[in-house]
Amino acid sequence: MQRIGSFAKGVWVEAGPGARPVADAATGEVIAEAGNDMLDVAGMVAYAREIGGPALRAMDFHDRARMLKALALHLNAHKQALYDLSFTTGATLADHGFDVDGGIGTLFVFASKGRREMPEGHVLVDGAWEPLGKTGAFGGQHVYTPRLGVAFHINAFNFPVWGMLEKIAPAFLAGVPSIVKPATATAHVTELCVRLMLEAGVLPDGALQLVTGGVGDGLAVLGPQDAVTFTGSAATAGVVQGGLPRGVPFTAEQDSLNASILGPDVTVESPEFEIAVKEITREMTTKAGQKCTAIRRVMVPEPLLQPLVDRLSSQLSKVVVGDPRAEGVRMGSVVSLSQRQDVLEKAALIGREAELVCGGQEGFAPVGDAEKGAFVAPHLFVCNDPDGAEHVHGTEAFGPVSTLMPYRDLGHAIALTNRGAGSLVASLVTHSGDVAREVVQGIGAWHGRVYVNNRDSAKEATGHGAPMPHLTHGGPGRAGGGEELGGIRAVKHYMQRVAVQGSPDILTAVTGRYVSGATKTAQEGHPFQVRFGDLKIGRTLTTETREITLDDIEHFAEFTGDTFYAHMDEEAAKRNPFFPGRVAHGYLILSFAAGLFVEPNEGPVLANTGLDSLRFLKPVSPGDSIVVDLTVMDKKSRNDDYGEVRWHASVSNQNGDAVAEYELLTMVAK
Length: 670
Ligand code: NAP
Hints:
It is built from 19 helices and 28 strands. Helix content is 32%, strand content 24%. The radius of gyration is 30 Å and the shape is globular. Strand 18, helix 13 (433-443) and strand 19 (447-453) form a beta-alpha-beta unit. Helix 3 runs antiparallel to helix 6 (187-199) and helix 8 packs across helix 9. It is α/β, with parallel strands linked by helices.
């Protein structure tokens, strides 16, 4: 029997006193034991703070993003081992796609976003700088810096891999070490994943620790620089939060009675009907319905109720349930016999208010030992009085259980959906923009995500129940009020936003990003001849001046076809409140600016990839002269060969007034 380890203070500690048994979900055979009452969880917290945190923070955002990518690549190369073990949790091969591949994919997304959207530095700039005085000599800038504690991630049993990876990816990117505590029932899969990650050899000591089994009184030593991120039932969330010292940041991802609405525009003949059938069947059967985002309630226009019951019954009756290792099985078991009992008890509560129209345990013959394996048949209910019912909106049967309920009109569907009292996700199947708008306005405040699907999006739609690393996962009210994922937003959950005040030079030094008004340094030679690594923030090129003539304006107008009256017709231009008479095109100014600052010879600058924040500030009249200041504002490495350089371009006239400002993006060779 496997003795599941905990990884504490740099060493593996085997299961020991107080260990609990872990059984194969499909056979009931005890395969492992987890937990050790002697585990020094408080010492692990100290180790993470003192060893892991400083090591992670010594790396910059890009170092940590590369580390995530290396972890993802290593896990990808060894995912078969994770698949093989995951069968013991009752999950099918298709389910592993969600847990194992979904987790690895999340690491890849954060690795890529970290490199593209975060600086090659130690603080993350938030928004533009705010000048606070008349001359711009003093101002403020919001930045994020990593918390100095540990992130304690407590996970539910249903996603032993994804549940861990989706939490550690943003925490690591932020520079915060993590202690992971998986649910005991599937801790052996998490343990293997941790072993694989350590084997990759890229994690600094103390960055990742693992507690299998109970946490003892380890959470009592947490403080305000730490964070607890909990996923599980609302009841446990309350217990965990209640036991934390004051001031420890706590987020909860809890149970959720997610709904799906068939729009009133859907008919049996429309493609949306089949889309709904597919989504509902998939959500009921993937992971045997053990997904926090699964569809538990379906709002159906009254006339579609019976056709939908018929179609879903036909689909669900084809689903072969059983041991996920057996040939032909499409839906595995739930995670344990106690979980099966829990699901059946909850289904019985729902059955008091709703009629079972398909499935159920009676006559159910799974592939495998029906007594010892934690098999649950799909249960499809219809509740004909959803307004008077309580359990169908409030009891989460964490298995293949869903309830259909008829609605009269869209307002009724919205009201019923919101009876979930806060959900992770709701889906809407409609081809009508009007319906989508009304539903989003009606249910948005009670949901973390609204997923709209129809014939136009079905091919690429990611699925009602799949949280995407790019988008927020979490929901208000009953769903826990937490927020996870959502791209770089998720990284900020592990950082502190601080408003730093000072001069432009100080703020440039703090952020590593040029702040308008900071000292510009002129150097010999053209900056376009300098390689990526040698370009210093603040290095500035001031160009020659160039006069703009009426001939230039007319030539540009004819050449480009832009003969807008403000450039061509003196009287009409004068009638316009913005112009003193005929003026130069904004794009002429940009083009002449480029003509002034580029270095024509082949060199390290490889390409101009775009402009950001372009503003035309003052008109340029014939006879005016322009000059450009081009300053290195920010740099981000892209790969071993080149990086992105962001230049601040300021174009001014003969009086020193700024006429245009923008940020120019270039790729520069290393
Ligand atoms: P659970 O029983 O609430 O357990 C969740 C976690 O809390 C487990 O790791 C559990 O460890 C741990 N735990 C229990 N008591 C604790 C304590 N006193 N101190 C510290 N940790 C403690 O939930 P579950 O049965 O694993 O998961 C099913 C539930 O999770 C469902 O309600 C589902 O909706 C929800 N869920 C939500 C999301 C989401 O993102 N919103 C995702 C997945 C699941 P042990 O296993 O060792 O007891």
